[in-house]
Design brief:
InterPro entries: RlmJ, SAM-dependent_MTases_sf. Belongs to the RlmJ family. With 280 residues, the protein is α/β, with parallel strands linked by helices. It has ten helices and ten strands. The strands form two sheets. The chain has an eight-stranded mixed beta sheet with strand order 5-4-1-6-7-9-8-10, sandwiched between helices. Helix 8 links the parallel strand 6 and strand 7. The model has no long low-confidence stretch (mean pLDDT 94).
């Protein structure tokens, strides 16, 4: 089934959290002059029109980027993320929101490289149009899980893989973990960032326990919720697990997430946490 369209959810609290973490990860790669490689296994459309019928249906962006758009006291890392949004809205009015590929493209240097995978036929068409003529970006109409086997390891030997599926299939978590193990086996020194939804605590915890049993080491966990986790099927929050996290990521997240939670939490609900799921 390929019914999921991210346009309904673009710019919501989960997107803000995910793209803030992504910004921190990419900026960490910029500390060294050597080129880096970025692979997005579920790239989506690249950018989203918040004035579209999809975005207007539930107006989820109002729970996320809409609350930060005019904030003036944002920490530097949050300002870096917000800059990627502002570049798509040069008139100062919030209309477009960047998907993960557009966030990362902002930071690519001339020798860096980005590979984007998307299986949905409509989304991959829009994605191809978004990056038409961009020689640093290559787009594959491909199952992102297959890409972890087909496209790793990269010749650059340093970089980042983002795995951000829709979680619309019953066996999504099993497929994700199987593909992640294969990708890690092929590129054990790469950074892998995996996003997952938090609708109920039991499902999220089961996924994390299964990840712990993979044998993969050095896994940092970050979670961010704006609602309490006892109501389903609402998206109460989301999490990211980062394999081989860069230096100072844990410290930065512990500083940034409390600030973000105060801005986005609904009536003091939800919470954030940063901890090691698996150590060295």
């Amino acid at each position: 089934m390929l019914s999921y369209r991210h346009g309904f959810h673009a710019g919501n609290h989960a997107d803000v959290f995910k793209h803030l973490v992504l910004t921190l990860l990419v900026c960490s790669l910029l500390r060294k002059e050597k080129p880096f490689f970025y692979l997005d296994t579920h790239a989506g459309a690249g950018r989203y029109d918040l004035g579209s019928a999809m975005a207007r249906k539930n107006r989820e962006y109002k729970t996320g980027i809409g609350l930060l758009w005019e904030v003036e006291d944002a920490p530097e890392a949050v300002q870096d993320y917000l800059e990627t949004v502002r570049l798509l809205n040069p008139d100062g009015k919030l209309r477009f929101y960047p998907g993960s590929p557009r966030v990362v493209r902002h930071y690519l240097r001339s020798a860096d490289r980005m590979l984007l995978c998307e299986l949905h036929p409509n989304e991959v068409k829009v994605l191809s149009e978004e990056f038409a003529g961009d020689k640093q970006v290559k787009i594959h109409h491909l199952d992102g899980y297959q890409a972890l086997k087909a496209l790793l390891p990269p010749p650059e030997r340093r970089g980042l893989v983002l795995i951000d599926p829709a979680f619309e299939l019953r066996d999504e978590r099993r497929r994700l973990l199987d593909a992640l193990k294969e990708g890690y086996r092929r590129w054990a020194t790469g950074i892998f960032a995996v996003w997952y939804p938090i609708q109920d605590r039991a499902t999220a915890d089961d996924f994390l326990r299964r990840l712990q049993r993979t044998g993969i080491r050095k896994i940092l966990l970050a979670e961010f919720s704006v609602f309490d986790s006892d109501e389903t099927p609402r998206l109460n929050g989301s999490g990211m697990v980062i394999i081989n996290p860069p230096w100072k990521l844990e410290e930065n997240l512990r500083t940034l997430l409390p600030w973000l939670w105060k801005k986005l939490a609904v009536d003091g609900q939800g919470k954030w946490r940063v901890e090691w799921l698996v150590g060295e």
